[in-house]
Design a protein that fits this description.
By secondary structure, this protein is α+β, with helices and mostly antiparallel strands. It has a single domain (about 45-200), classed as tt1808, chain A, CATH 3.90.1570. It has helices spanning about 5-10, 20-30, 50-65, 125-130, 130-135, 190-195, 200, and strands at about 35, 40, 75, 80-85, 90, 95, 110, 115-120, 145-150, 155-160, 165-175, 180, 185-190. About 30% of the residues lie in helices and about 30% in strands. A hairpin with a 5-residue loop joins strand 9 (about 145-150) and strand 10.
């Protein structure tokens, strides 16, 4: 049973911390936390299917870049993205960075210039990823493409920024489909290759 003091504490808004305090704590933590304008939120650990899809998406993109001598950097979910307008630091599932990474205050784990962001949808985050997180990412000038990968079916949605600053979405479904990432020289993302082997995990 909660005491009166416990109930009062539960009703109080979360105490905000500075960016410096966040980084000091995050550098020591074995878990990942995002920073939302002074509020620190612990991230849920990804399940095997989620982690495999994120890794395979990054690997397929990186293989294309290497094969075509495209000078872009692909990183995984250990890289944080700074969203200046909303005072946030978030972790993507995978990210393609512009030609020369721009680091936040020289921190090699935090970039400010994502070109393409990949998020693998899970039950707990899919609505956030489709709406608010997408809105946050769009305030970053370098951000040109958003790739949403479904876990429960072979389906990928690609949001691409147009020259007039509007965004269009293309949906790709099934083994025969190949998603196209226009922001990185029409990089093909074969759904058959992306989802191959996951039937072992999710029979």
């Amino acid at each position: 049973m909660l005491t009166k003091t416990s109930r009062r504490k539960a009703l109080l808004p979360p105490q905000k911390v500075s960016i410096e305090e966040y980084f000091r704590a995050e550098d020591k933590s074995i878990y990942k936390h995002e920073y939302h304008d002074g509020i620190i939120k612990k991230m849920a650990g990804g399940q095997l299917t989620h982690n495999r899809l994120a890794q395979k998406a990054a690997n397929l993109i990186d293989s294309f870049l290497e094969s075509n001598d495209v000078n872009l950097v692909v990183s995984n979910s250990d890289t944080k993205i700074r969203i200046e307008q909303y005072n946030k630091f978030v972790y993507p599932d995978a990210v393609v960075i512009c030609e020369k990474p721009a680091f936040y205050q020289n921190r090699k784990d935090t970039i400010t210039n994502p070109l393409v962001v990949v998020e693998v949808l899970s039950d707990s985050t899919k609505e956030y990823d489709r709406t608010l997180k997408y809105e946050y990412y769009r305030t970053i000038p370098s951000f040109k493409e958003y790739v949403l990968v479904h876990q429960d079916r072979k389906h990928v949605s690609v949001y691409t920024k147009q020259p007039d600053a509007t965004w269009i979405v293309r949906d790709y479904d099934g083994d025969d489909a190949t998603a196209i990432l226009y922001a990185i020289q029409q990089c093909p993302l074969s759904l058959k290759r992306l989802y191959r082997g996951l039937e072992i995990i999710n029979p």
